[in-house]
Amino acid sequence: MEQAIRNLIKSNGTPFYLFDEKGFIDNYRKLEGIFKAIYPNYQLSYSYKTNYTPFVCQLVRSLGGYAEVVSDMEYTLAKKLGYDNKQIVYNGPSKGEEMFDHLEHQGILNIDSLDEAKRIISYVKGHPDRNYTVGIRINMHVGGDFISRFGLVPESKELQETVSLIKETVNLNLIGLHCHISRSRGVEAWTKRTEIMLKAADDYIDGVPAYISLGSGMYADMPEFLKQQFGGDTVPTYEDYADCTIQPFADHYKDVENQPILFTEPGTTVVARYLSFVTKVLSVKEVRGRYIANMDGDYHNLGEICTMKKLPVTVLSGGKEQHTYTNMDIMGFTCLEQDVLYPGFEQSIAEGDILVFDNVGGYSIVSKPQFIKPQSAMYVLRTNGEVEQIMRAETFDDVFNKFSFKF
Prior knowledge:
Blueprint: H1 2-12, E1 16-20, H2 21-38, E2 42-47, H3 54-62, E3 66-69, H4 72-80, E4 88-90, H5 98-104, E5 108-111, H6 114-125, E6 132-137, H7 157-168, E7 172-178, H8 187-204, E8 211-213, H9 224-229, H10 238-252, E9 261-264, H11 268-271, E10 275-287, E11 290-295, E12 313-316, E13 323-324, E14 328-331, E15 340-345, E16 348-349, E17 354-357, E18 377-381, E19 387-391, H12 396-400
Parallel strand pairs: 1-18, 2-3, 2-9, 3-4, 4-5, 5-6, 6-7, 7-8, 8-9, 11-14
Antiparallel strand pairs: 1-10, 10-11, 10-17, 12-17, 13-16, 14-15, 18-19
Helix pairs in contact: 2-10, 6-7, 8-10
C-alpha cells in the first residue's frame, strides 16, 4: 500500500483517495458468510448514500449485493450500473418521481409516511390493470437520546391508517417491513430492533412477509487504534450481531417453507475501513503557543467521523527534518476554524510530509462540498496489485459550468 501511495504522489501529487479492493471484498464476504451460515436467505443491500462511488457500487453488484437507495439520483445510478429493479431497495422520506418507475418494475419500495402512502395509492388506483407491492418503514426507539424522524410508529394511528389504506386498495399488496436506526450500534439495540420487527411482521403482514429489512448501524472490523475509542473489547463482532439478530430471525421462521428475505443495509460497515485519504503537510507553525500543521486536504475529505474520533493516521516522511510537537492540531485548507483533521497530534512531523488517514470510506466523498477547492481524485489498489483511477479530480469547470456568466 505504501509503495502504491508513493508512486501516486510522484506521478499525480496530493491530495487523493485510495480504495483497497481486496480488503473490501474480504470484509464483505466475511460479513455475508457469517450471516448466511445461520439464515441462508440473508441478503446484503449496500447503502449508496454512504459512498456512491460507481466502482464500489459495481463491486457490490458483482458480489451479489443489492442496492439501497434514497433518492432518484441514487436510483438512476443503480439502474445505470445494470441493476434489475427487484434488486433495488428504495427507502427514504423524500422519494422523487422515479419511485413510480420503480413500482412499475416491481422494485422494493418502503413507505416512510402516511402522506407518501396516499401518493402511492393515488397512482396505483390510476392503473387498475396492474398489481403493485410495497413495504412500510417502522419507526422505533432502541436507545439513544434522540427521536428518529423516519417511518411509522407501531400501534400508532398513522400506521394503522396506512396499513388499512393499503389493504383496501385492490391492486396494492403490503409484503414487507423495513427499519433503519442510526446511532444505536450495540447488541442490546439490535436485539430490541429484531424483536420489534418480528412482532410488527406478525401484526401487520398477512401471512409470511416477502422480506424484512433490519437496516444498518453495525460496528465493523476496524483498526485497533480506532476500536479502542469505541470501547475496545466491548465492540460487537459480526458473530455477536449474528447471535442477537440473525439467529432469532431464523428461529422465528424455522417452520416456514418460503422464508422471507432478511435484509441488512450496511454502508460504513463494509466500506469505511477500505478507503484512505492522502494529504500533504503544506506548513508547520506556532500561534500563541498552539502548534498547527496546514494540509492540502480538509476535514470534509475524511467524513463526519473525524469530528468525533481520532482516525488512524500514518506519516510518510517527505525528507525534511522532523520534530515532535506536543498537542499539535492537523488543520485543513479551508478558512474555517473548525477544519480540524486530527486534534492533539503527537507524532514527529515536518513540512512536506504525507499523512495517510485510514477509515474514511463512509460519508466522506458524498459529503465533500465544492467549497474553496473541488473534490480530489480517487484510485483503487486492485487485487492484482495494479493501481487505477476510478474518479478524476474535479476541475474549475466542474464547479462553475452550472452558473450563468451572462451578466
